Amino acid sequence: MRPEKVDRLATVIILTLTGLVGLVLFALLVYLLLSGIPHISWHFLTSSAESFRSGGGIRDQLFNSLYLVVLTLIVSIPLALCAAIYLSEYAPDNRWTNLLRLAIEVLSSLPSVVVGLFGYLVFVLQWGLDFSLLAGALALTILNLPILTRACEDALRQVPYLQRQAGLGLGMSKWRVTTKIVLPAALPGIITGAILSAGRIFGEAAALIYTAGQSSPAISYTDWNPFSPTSFLNPLRPAETLAVHIWKVNSEGLVPDARAVSNGSVAVLILTILIFNLLARYIGYLIKRRLAKRG
Amino acid sequence: MENSVALEVKNLQVLYGDKHVVHDVSMKFPANKITAMIGASGSGKSTLLRSLNRMNDDLATVKGEINFHDLNINQPKVNVYRIRQQIGMVFQQPTPFPLSIYENVIYGLRLAGVKDRQILDQRVEESLRQAALWEEVKDHLKESALALSGGQQQRLCIARTLAVQPEIILMDEPTSALDPVSTSQIEDTLVQLKEKFTIIMVTHNMQQASRSADWTAFMHQGKLIEFNQTADIFMNPQQQQTADYLSGKFG
């Protein structure tokens, strides 16, 4: 065949396959949203779940999911960032750091059920945290760390080598170069990575079933004391998240409108993750613009 | 020969792992002159240059003496950050930080803890004038340095190095990423700078060496082959290898 013909054929094949992938994903998304959005109402978002009657909402589950994401990021961002700084700025290229990288890669492909059961054994039973937001946050941290570390490391590595050299050449110490030059330049990438990872842990269910628990005891949104057992901020209370709720409603839900609740929850979940992703882009863009303009 | 010496290296050797890149180089860099280091790629000239303010600390093993004001600065106990403020460096490619022009220039001063606005303002103007950039940027000092052209960025980086008032400026192929107009602007700048500073420059561009350098050192395969006044090196090389290199037989 002539080169032009091969070229045209290859382009057609690539476009067809790409279109197919896009179509499947898009169809799935549209289907989920179309079947869920009609069930979303102010009442659905602001009332608590029912156990037996229909008409329950997802207020607590939605809040729990968001709160759990915040707690997880509070634990995992400092850890991931420090690990990433070590790996990208300080780590020598030797067997030990290769082992470390391998461990991170293996950790990133760990099935979340395994992480959940590990969390159940260690955090819930061994450490005596019981089913709690904190145990859930720690389990999610295990899931999140490898991805976030990788994202931070990539962001740091993208800062040109010469920028570091320029800092050193001005008499800065390595630590100052890292904190004053490399870190600010990598910030958009780090924040984007953190928000994207937030989207991922927002949808996690399997790791939470045995750590954050499947029950949602009555909580008060006016009790701001995080040590009070009924406070919405208490990290030691059990908390069913949105994703766990979807799983539970589908597997053992007794409410007559289980299907509607499930569909609505799925739509809320997807929309929230969509917001996370858009937010990540927007914030990354804002910081980039601010950095370029800073005076 | 020369009345004052800015920097002297004695028996300098540089090794990457067990690869010997610079062999036993001894030379004296004259003060307030431009010294050009020429030689083919891999001749060790950049490595030698980067060793002079210890930028190779993490990458290579540097043996021998580097004497700066009667002090051998190639010792672990010497404060390397202080040394780099006195022996500054400009790189192949412009390396502005993503900050305003003003903030770029005073970066090293801020680092040294200078806060007095008057001193900062004054040093910004002085450094930018010395780098021959003042007239072009004086009305937009608050704007991003990233908006400048490549040649302007490189002169900004020179100004940033000048602002901490070093004695010696090392330049690693400072114009290799620039167009001919920017290159000649930088070369003009260098000639003016040598009144106050000592400049040691690595260059691949032999016209550049012959145009702007007072002294030229020719390196080949990690050895210093010949070091002399630029006119002598180019018109009357003493070594066959130098003559071959200059006439384009290799490199």
TrEMBL record, chain B:
Example of a GO biological process term: phosphate ion transmembrane transport
CDD domains, sorted: ABC_PstB_phosphate_transporter
Source organism superkingdom: Bacteria
Pfam families listed in its UniProt record: ABC_tran
Residue stretches in coiled coil: none
Transmembrane segments: none
SMART domains membership: AAA
GO cellular component, one term: membrane
Keyword Transmembrane: no
GO molecular function annotation: ATP binding; ATP hydrolysis activity; phosphate transmembrane transporter activity
Keywords per UniProt: ATP-binding, Nucleotide-binding, Phosphate transport, Transport
Domain ABC transporter positions: 7-246
Gene3D superfamilies reported in the protein's UniProt record: P-loop containing nucleotide triphosphate hydrolases (3.40.50.300)
Name the UniProt record assigns to this protein: Phosphate ABC transporter, ATPase subunit
Organism this protein belongs to: Limosilactobacillus reuteri subsp. rodentium (strain DSM 17509 / CIP 109821 / 100-23)
Lineage start: Bacteria, Bacillati, Bacillota, Bacilli, Lactobacillales
